[in-house]
């Protein structure tokens, strides 16, 4: 590293003291957090101010307050230090040859992944996978995940996409609701509450078009953030729900829900396994990826 670039990297200790003092608004509380004396924190910050040729704090009563320049610097530096901490923790704690961290959509994790995991562990007994529920995209550089399950288009920034499968949603209702409301045909659904996923409010229009009833105004019902909440509402008799079939197979098999209509609705997207290119070299990820693709291919052949 040349001298000019080295000059742009202040001492790490000074940065830690600065961000702690910025967070607490106090040198003494920063010292307590870092296990230093107050005078040591003060010296570290003085060193940083000299390094930057900027005044970072001003006195405010018994505490300190960031200057405008100090606030701008703290806003930029604190997230960078957090990323370094997370990256270091991953490097120390992880065993990439057998450990894996996967972010999954909650419903997909509960109803597709979890029931199939015994097959994975039977094939790869040494693999250790940590699953976490995530419903939105994130930057792999900022999170401790090796891969994620994504639904929609292959548009996750900076990630490779492995196509898994498409979904078809079916209209489901409890047998008691069907009997109580005289629901026998698709047209009968025009007079009962229709439950929907909050992010797919227009899915019912697609379903009715497939059922041969276009341009309708169905009775609005409750909306839910997750499919499994939607399924429970349908089981309880709150209305008719539109849910991907693979997510409600247990309720259909047990008879708690029925799906008497042939019409389906496609959300227009698909499920993908997404991951940054560098993860493909991990033995644990290679085994998990191969298993996922094999499971999805076999399911589509059924």
From TrEMBL:
Residue span, HTH lysR-type domain: 10-67
Family: Belongs to the LysR transcriptional regulatory family.
Keyword DNA-binding listed: yes
Gene name of the record: gcvA
Cited PROSITE patterns: HTH_LYSR
Listed name of the protein: Transcriptional regulator GcvA
Keywords, ordered alphabetically: DNA-binding, Transcription, Transcription regulation
Keyword Transcription: yes
Coiled-coil intervals: none
């Amino acid at each position: 590293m040349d001298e000019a670039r080295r000059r742009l990297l202040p001492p790490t200790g000074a940065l830690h003291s600065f961000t702690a003092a910025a967070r607490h608004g106090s040198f003494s509380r920063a010292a307590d957090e870092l296990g230093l004396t107050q005078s040591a924190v003060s010296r570290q910050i003085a060193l940083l101010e000299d390094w930057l040729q900027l005044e970072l704090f001003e006195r405010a009563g018994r505490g300190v307050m960031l200057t405008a320049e100090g606030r701008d610097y703290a806003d930029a530096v604190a997230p960078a230090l957090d990323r370094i901490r997370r990256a270091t923790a991953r490097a120390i704690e992880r065993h990439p040859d057998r450990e894996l961290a996967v972010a999954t959509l909650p419903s997909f994790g509960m109803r597709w992944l979890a029931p199939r995991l015994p097959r994975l562990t039977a094939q790869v007994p040494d693999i250790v996978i940590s699953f976490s529920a995530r419903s939105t995209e994130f930057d792999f550089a900022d999170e401790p995940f090796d891969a994620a399950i994504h639904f929609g288009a292959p548009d996750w920034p900076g990630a490779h996409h492995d196509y898994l499968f498409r979904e078809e949603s079916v209209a489901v209702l409890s047998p008691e609701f069907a009997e109580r409301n005289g629901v026998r045909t698709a047209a009968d659904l025009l007079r009962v509450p229709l439950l929907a996923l909050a992010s797919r409010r227009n899915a019912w229009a697609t379903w009715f078009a497939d059922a041969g009833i276009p341009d309708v105004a169905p009775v609005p019902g409750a909306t839910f953030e997750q499919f499994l909440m939607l399924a429970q509402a349908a089981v309880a008799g709150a209305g008719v729900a539109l849910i991907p079939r693979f997510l409600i197979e247990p309720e259909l098999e047990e008879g708690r829900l029925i799906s008497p209509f042939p019409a389906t609705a496609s959300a227009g997207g698909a499920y993908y396994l997404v991951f940054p290119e560098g993860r493909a070299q991990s033995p644990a990820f290679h085994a998990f990826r191969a298993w996922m693709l094999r499971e999805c291919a076999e399911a589509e052949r059924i």
